[in-house]
Amino acid sequence: MTVTSKTILITGAGSGFGALAARALAGAGHTVYAAMRDTTGRNADRVAQAKAYGAEHRVDLRTVELDVLSQESADAAVAAILADAGSLDVIVHNAGHLVTGPTEAFTPEELAAVYDTNVLGTQRVNRAALPRLRDQRSGLLLWIGSTSTRGGTPPYLAPYFAAKAAMDSLAVSYAAELARFNIETTIVVPGSFTSGTNHFATGGHPAEQTVVPAYEERYAGLMDQVMQRLAGLAPADADVSQVADAVVDVVDAPHGTRPFRVHVDPANDGAEEVSRVADRVRTEFLSRIGLADLLAPHPAGR
């Protein structure tokens, strides 16, 4: 299969899934803009690493300043890509923030901050990029979800899980609303990878610790137990690079043939089984109300 090179923007590409996917996509022959914030400050070393990787492997891996918490930053990033590359074909919504701790311990403002990054951040990027994709009547939105949306959900991760569920719901609605603009949607759904990313190492915690001791008394060592059990569920050959490989497979697939949802879940927490039912219900319902054409991308009028 001959793959046409695409211009790709991937958010949160300084580390974790984002950095791995950016390198894998560049290696597949695409022009990739690895977006991250504070590119001249705390992430300057990651910018340098991306540049060095591109030079060493002779791939087109570029970086762009993008803070998903700012509409102005999202607008500027998309404008910079269009000025530099002259095109934009794929948006990979990857930026996210994880926090751990008893749900009660988080203030409403702290929950809102997680939602702001994981959900509203995608909306800011969409508002910046979709006018271009709609005008050209083509494109792909690829969302990095989480099996927590419909699978097993251990305690102490509620703010992250709730935000990921909201992002998944947003992606599902966008899929139907963009189909008549010939814009395709795929949700890549990683499971729990306990090594190979720094999600847990860089995750946040509740700033106010007053209620934490009460939970520690009855749930002492809970997160350590969860991490150990999740690691034990994964097969020996589970590797976080499988998520990046899945992203490449989706991007490289011919337009109109991409799967709506792809699970990469070595621990098999049940999300794929539940999603299969939910996506079937979505398909059947849209068909019942005469909107079956919204299930796949196509030019308006077809």
Secondary structure layout:
Blueprint: E1 7-10, H1 16-27, E2 31-36, H2 44-57, E3 61-65, H3 71-85, E4 90-93, H4 108-136, E5 139-144, H5 158-178, E6 183-190, H6 212-219, H7 222-233, H8 241-252, E7 261-264, H9 271-288
Parallel strand pairs: 1-2, 1-4, 2-3, 4-5, 5-6, 6-7
Helix pairs in contact: 1-8, 3-4, 4-5
Structural account:
Helix 5 (158-178) links the parallel strand 5 (139-144) and strand 6. With 302 residues, the protein is α/β, with parallel strands linked by helices. It has helices at 16-27, 44-57, 71-85, 108-136, 158-178, 212-219, 222-233, 241-252, 271-288, and strands at 7-10, 31-36, 61-65, 90-93, 139-144, 183-190, 261-264. Strands 3-2-1-4-5-6-7 form a 7-stranded parallel sheet, with helices on both faces. The radius of gyration is 19 Å and the shape is globular.
Helix segment count?
9
Helix content: 40-55%
Strand content: 5-15%
Poorly predicted runs: none
Strand order of the largest sheet: 3-2-1-4-5-6-7
Distance between the termini: 27 Å
Give the C-alpha Rg: 19 Å
Morphology: globular
User: Largest beta sheet, briefly?
Assistant: 7 strands, parallel
Mean pLDDT: 91
Helix-strand category: alpha/beta
Keywords:
alpha/beta
What is this structure, in a nutshell?
With 302 residues, this protein is an alpha/beta fold. It is built from 9 helices and 7 strands; from the N terminus they run βαβαβαβαβαβαααβα.
